[in-house]
Design a protein that fits this description.
mainly alpha; 0% strand; 9 helices
Length: 209
Amino acid sequence: FYLANIQAFNISDGELNYLDSIFSKYHNITEDSLKLSLINLAFEHVKDYELKNYYHNQYVMVVEDIISSGKYNSAYHNFLLHQKAQVLVERGNYFRIQNPNFEMALENFNSSLKIRSDLADSIGMADVYYYIAVVFEEEGRVVEAVQNHLKSLAISEMLNDSINTANSLTNLGLVYKKHGQITKALDYYNKSLNRSEEHTSELQSPDHL
């Protein structure tokens, strides 16, 4: 399961022994959730980012196999889809930060976004729109960056999520500041400050206490 391509990665003897201790049990396990836990243990333990991405891929493949098996009810399928969506975000960030490939980063983020949209996971969608915006910003594609920050902002406002609303407003200010549009940047910074102050007032109100 895991040794076929392992020598291609930067891995210590200690990590190799740990992985061997984990996956020597893998093929004898029938509980699907435990299989996923073992893969996640491997991901958490190794330091090499390419190997982490390898285990991300394995995790997604196992989740897809479990879902296609039809063995579980819709609630568990949805749980697995949430897990898959999160792994896709982590893979997107791997391609954004550790092994820069913006096309692959966007592919993973958009796949995660599709799952979260199908699950009506508004909070998750807002997070993914943020990451998509960051990719576009790093590519210098300001219009697309702003569009996705605005989508994230709209969801946070719809959910009345004061903290993430303020964060989205700040993110928009940062984009405009980076590209020399100081007036727009200040406008968003002030909106973010106002929203943060409103949130603080709400927390201190007698009704909240």
